[in-house]
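Model it.
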Amino acid sequence: MKKLLKGALIAACVLLTTGFAKAQTKIGYVNFQALMSSSPEFAGITANINAYSKTWSDQIAGMQTELQKNAADYDAKKAGMTDAVRTKTEGELQDLNKRIQETSNAAQTQVQSKYDEITKPLIDKLKAAINQVAKENGYTYVLDSSSTAFLVSPEADDLMARVKAKLGPGTPAGPATTPIKKN
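Modeled.
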């Protein structure tokens, strides 16, 4: 009888503890991409990245124009070239093509690095605002709805408007996400 009573007491404690833990977990969500793109700073970041990217694309376009010109010149003259000159010219064309590929890869890396560098202060600011709203409203977890697919999500847990309000004037306060509800 003692074992049965002890087992029932342990089971009751486990049920009460899990119920208490569940009551303390509050989960909210925000569309981080929409929040970021709606911030006033994002337009400046986009313009800066576009200008930086354009310098790379202009350089690559110049190299491609040179390659096309040299290839057309080679095609026009290759019949009259000796084997040694033809081989040398083909090697130069391949080298130029390889440099274009390397420059293109470097451009992608550099543009991404620049984007990460100039968006870090904005991302930190947005995360701080989300953290404040979560603490003020008792949320244990805040999910990013731009990278998570929600099948059901209560509107009350969408923190987008509260975070925008926390960020202050200049951030559009309209709802940027619409939860998908199952019937």
